[in-house]
Each structure stands twice: as structure tokens, then as C-alpha cells.
Amino acid sequence: MKSEKEKMLSGEYFHPFDKELSTERLQARKLLHELNHLSPDNFQQQKEIIKKLLPNSSKATFIQPPFYCDYGYNIKTGKGVFFNFNCTLLDLATIEIGEKTLLGPNVQIYTAIHPTNAEKRATHLEKGKPVSIGSNVWIGGNVTICPGVKIGNKSIIGAGSVVIKDIPANVMAAGNPCKVIKELD
């Protein structure tokens, strides 16, 4: 029989209040608390906390606190990824972000999906759909990226957009819902 964590990692419905998952979220929140309350000039300790919080990410990932996530280990970043102030990543499924991608302030990336049936939703079951963002992407401030979305390399997502569908490579896209505005050179 699969554990709730195994169900979560395989994209099945799971109970998030399971003891193992609750303990892992608490551990992430402790690290986030440390990160978000460090003196801004304490770069070495910031790097150490990020390494613990995001063990599957490049050491060259920069986070401008405050930063929030569920688990951390489901976030995979390439070299030179930059998170501006107040980013929130609900990483119960994998969030992959390619190298040199810039995320503006208040960017939110969601992988969580809840049942549409009200009775099933009341049981607190959830599952996740991975999000993938390519390399050299620029995500403007206050962008929301929904579960299952893929954004191609070198694209730009305009500030305030809500991305509910895949965005191809090398385009500028914006709006709610986010749509391609033009191709980039």
C-alpha cells in the first residue's frame, strides 16, 4: 500500500494532513522562517538555508525574502534563477525552472488541484500537476501560474497575468487568461 507521500509524488489524490507530510511541511516552514527573518547582509547563512530548503536546486539560485513554499524538495531550479520578494510556490508536485529565469515580486506558482465534487473536496484530498518553466524566462510581478502549465524558453509573461494554459517558447504573453501577444526576436 502506498504512503500518502508516495501518492503525492505520483500525482494521485492524497491526504495532506498525513503525519509524514505534515512533519515535512513543518520542517520547510521552520527553514522559511529562518530565511525570511535573516539580516539582509547575512548572505552565507541565506545560501545554507536555501540549500537545505531546495536540495534539488542549483546552488546559484537567489531568493529575495520573504519566500514561501510547501515542501521545497519538489522545486528544481537551474543556475542563475532569481526569485524577487514574496514569491509563493505550492510544490506538492514538481516545479522545474530553467537557468537564468527571473521571477518578479509576488509570483505565485500552484501545483495543487482539489476535487470539483464538493463532498470529495470536503475530505481535504488533493493532488498535484507539475509546472515547468524554461530557461531565460521573465515572469513579471503578480503573475499566477496554475497547475500543469508549461512555459517555453525565452518567453516573457506580463505582470498580473494568470497563466492557465501552456505558453510556447520565445513569445510575449499577458492577460487573464494569459495569451500570446507577439513572438520575440
From TrEMBL:
| InterPro entries assigned | Hexapep (IPR001451), Hexapep_transf_CS (IPR018357), LacA-like (IPR039369), Mac_dom (IPR024688), Trimer_LpxA-like_sf (IPR011004)
Q: What is its EC number?
A: 2.3.1.-
Q: Which family does it belong to?
A: Belongs to the transferase hexapeptide repeat family.
Check the record and name the Pfam families matching this protein: Hexapep, Mac
Would you tell me the protein name for this molecule? Acetyltransferase
Superkingdom of this protein's organism: Bacteria
Stretches assigned to the Maltose/galactoside acetyltransferase domain: 5-59
Q: Where does the chain cross the membrane?
A: none
The residue stretches assigned to a coiled coil in this entry are none
* Protein keywords: Acyltransferase, Repeat, Transferase
Which molecular function GO terms apply here? galactoside O-acetyltransferase activity
PROSITE patterns, A to Z: HEXAPEP_TRANSFERASES
* SUPFAM superfamilies noted in UniProt: Trimeric LpxA-like enzymes
